[in-house]
Amino acid sequence: MRDIFEQIADDIAKGPVDAVQAAREHTKRNLPKRFYERVSVELKDDVFAVLLDGRSIKTPGRNALVFKDEVIAEGVAAEWELQEEEIDPATMPLTRIAHSAIDAVEDKFAEVADEITRYAGNDHLCYRAASPAELVTRQKNQWDPVLGWAETLFAGRFKLVEGIMHVAQDEAVTTAYRAQLGKYDALQLTAIHTVTSISGSALLALALAEKAFEADVVWSAAHVDEDWNIEQWGQDEEAARIRRFKNDEFNAAVLILVGAPEES
Asked: How far apart are CA 75 and CA 67, in angstroms?
């Protein structure tokens, strides 16, 4: 499985539009046939391993695909079980996040944490529309509570600006944000990076990880501008497909950071 997952990882690095298109094109050309009958999860040496016909799965970097959390292991196993005649990594966001965490973030934790912190220093929630009034109100109603929570956590203030002119945030605030990331493991940090990339907001990603806001609140706050534009102009098929792809990525990150939703 090394080649196909590496190709998908390269595609996703190009951005959401290219990622979806490249994944679909790759599906048509090179997807391997499903070669296993049974998927299971087994506790081995205090970690949960995902097995195919009783054999352990390796990541593209040839590391063991194992997890501390049984729920996450079961989620990865479910992605493998749902594959039909062919194996499509584009439909396996949890597996891909796990591969990134195990093969890359584990050894480059500080670099990834620094990159996320740079988002916090230029966070999407700090850039506000000047008009129309309804969009201004929506941004305020959905973004201000997150900023207020973050300012309490970091004992500092975030600077807001209308438009896209860059505003530098206080170093003390970004330093406090960076320190907060140190409490997470590599898989969780990869999930935080995923949400940050999807939303453009490291503050929303951390708010989700800290369980300060529900996942649906975070998703909605991340798409205030997009939802407004859809209401005004509609949404084409390609944009809807990209949004579904992003939502799958988001839900995989939510499972890692928050856990499975409770059954009602």
From this structure: 11
Choice between 172 and 18, residue whose per-residue pLDDT is larger: 172
For 244, other C-beta atoms within 10 Å of its C-beta total: 11
DSSP code string of the chain? -HHHHHHHHHHHTT-HHHHHHHHHHHHHHHPPBP--S-EEEEEETTEEEEEETTEE-B-TTS-B-EES-HHHHHHHHHHHHH--SB--GGG-HHHHHHHHIIIIITT-HHHHHHHHHHHHTT-GGGEE----HHHHHHHHHHHHHHHHHHHHHHTS----EESS---PPPHHHHHHHHHHHTTS-HHHHHHHHHHHHHHS-HHHHHHHHTTSS-HHHHHHHHTHHHHHHHHHH---HHHHHHHHHHHHHHHHHHHHHT-SPPP-
pLDDT for res 261: 67
pLDDT digits (tens, 9 = 90+) for 82-110: 999 998 888 999 999 999 999 999 999 99
User: Could you give the CA distance from residue 123 to residue 118 in angstroms, rounded to a whole number?
Assistant: 8
Q: Which amino acid is at 39?
A: V
pTM value is 0.88
| Count of alpha carbons within 13 angstroms of residue 1, beta-carbon side | 25
Alpha-carbon dihedral angle through residues 147, 149, 150, 151, given to the nearest 10 degrees: 80
39-44 and 47-52 as β-strands: parallel, antiparallel, unpaired?
antiparallel
244: which 2 tokens?
């579904």
Strands 161-162 and 127-128: parallel
Q: What are 162's two structure tokens?
A: 């209308």
